[in-house]
Design a protein that fits this description.
This protein has one helix at residues 2-14, and strands at 22-37, 50-62, 67-79, 86-99, 104-115, 126-137, 142-151, 165-177. It is elongated, with a radius of gyration of 17 Å. By secondary structure, the protein is mainly β.
Length: 178
């Protein structure tokens, strides 16, 4: 786990000199998440969505006038509402943005997640997701955004639990760029 955190830190630090047009900021907001079981929700499990929060720090580096790259580190409360299906993550979204106009941009990218609690609890410690979203600039510094992520890996540890589910998550946030 220490190697993974060190790798994330190194990757973020390496983007410092990526571009002269760099912005940094913070974003926070509301999450709505759930587990997508395959093929169906097992009997006895209530798979209601979980409402939570997220907070993160990002850098945004212009590649051109319309494209930018925004790596991020964030905490996100995800999983399902049932207590034993809650998963808190430290995540690293690597967001590639395309400006549609001066105020609106759309983005896609991968996201790596590191579980932020008990090591051996039946959940995998590391996961990957696909990420998409919209961002709207209210002012030059303040924005609102919406993101959706869909897990590409099973959240359950194959050795401990004979279930398969992927995490789905929506984030509605507000942020500040400096």
């Amino acid at each position: 786990m220490k190697k993974t955190i060190l790798l994330f830190t190194f990757m973020l630090a390496s983007f410092y000199g990526f571009s002269q047009d760099a912005l940094y900021g913070v974003r926070a907001g509301y999450t709505i998440s759930n587990l997508d079981f395959d093929p169906e929700v097992p009997a006895g499990i209530e798979n209601a969505h979980r409402n939570g929060f997220f907070i993160g720090f990002f850098g945004e580096y212009s590649i051109s006038k319309t494209f930018s790259f925004a790596p991020e580190i964030q905490f996100s409360a995800e999983g399902a509402k049932e207590q034993n299906l809650r998963i808190n993550y430290i995540q690293m979204p690597l967001f590639f943005k395309f400006k549609i106009d001066q105020s609106l941009s759309i983005g896609v990218g991968p996201q790596a997640s590191l579980k932020g609690h008990s090591y051996e609890d039946g959940f995998k410690n590391f996961g990957f997701s696909a990420l998409g979203g919209l961002e709207y600039l209210i002012t030059d510094e303040i924005f609102i955004d919406f993101r959706y992520s869909y897990g590409l890996t099973n959240v359950f540890d194959d050795n401990d639990v004979d279930l398969e589910a992927k995490n789905t998550n929506m984030q509605i946030g507000i942020g500040l760029k400096f």
